[in-house]
Design goal:
single chain, alpha+beta, OB fold (Dihydrolipoamide Acetyltransferase, E2P), five-stranded mixed β-barrel, 7 helices, elongated
């Protein structure tokens, strides 16, 4: 729980823990977390530049032209918003427009690599995968169909060489085993349809937990700790 009083001695540590939890649960990078926080108080839009050569940089002149074009576009939009029925033919800008352009508009850095990655992930078909991962978090929820206890589980698993947070739902016996795996810090072997949607990885469909392997690990761990 994050205290409201910022002068508490441990406020900084609790604040860092809260940010880390948000990033882990939503499978966000630090850049994505910053973007999501900024989006709560600002409208964000991305500008894509067509380039003849690939790379993370553009010529300085092109950058100057791009920024000027964006400025003109935002100025026109602001002027239309302030006075939709009035045509401006140069001269001094209305005070609200000047204030908006001077104080409210900000230019962020490029996100070329991240955008490319997200586009590729959106195009990936659903694949039946077996993942091995540790339980990063779990929360209980009611299964409205069967009435059994269910858990919304996040596991940390490797997907094509990169560590990802994968969201899934487990019910009944598998729910109980996931709790034990979380408490004992044991990996789970789990199979299902792996999809990427709404900027997060999910395991859906007929999700099956390798109960035999996990039960054997639980027994061995308890025996070793006895």
């Amino acid at each position: 729980m994050l205290p409201l009083a910022t002068d508490f001695v441990d406020f900084g540590q609790h604040f860092r823990d809260a940010l880390s939890a948000l990033a882990t649960i939503n499978d966000w990078t630090p850049l994505q977390l910053e973007r999501e926080i900024l989006a709560t108080r600002a409208d964000l839009f991305l500008v894509r530049l067509d380039q003849g050569q690939s790379g993370d940089s553009i010529p300085l002149r092109q950058a100057e032209t791009t920024v000027e074009a964006i400025h003109k576009m935002l100025r026109a939009a602001a002027m239309t918003t302030v006075a939709p029925n009035q045509r401006f033919r140069g001269g001094r800008l209305p005070a609200p427009v000047s204030a908006f352009l001077e104080d409210e508009v900000r230019l962020g850095h490029t996100q070329r690599a991240r955008i490319r990655e997200e586009l590729l992930q959106r195009e990936e078909p659903v694949r039946h995968e077996t993942l091995v991962g540790m339980v990063a978090s779990l929360s209980r929820e009611e299964d409205s169909f069967s009435g059994d206890e269910a858990a919304s589980v996040v596991i940390s698993a490797e997907i094509r060489g990169r560590r990802r947070n994968v969201h899934l739902i487990l019910t009944g016996r598998q729910h109980d085993l996931a709790i034990q795996a979380y408490r004992l810090k044991l990996p789970m072997v789990i199979t299902g349809d792996l999809i990427y949607a709404r900027r997060s990885w999910r395991l859906e469909g007929n999700v099956e937990l390798d109960e035999g392997t996990l039960l054997r690990q639980i027994a061995e761990t308890r025996w070793a700790n006895s």
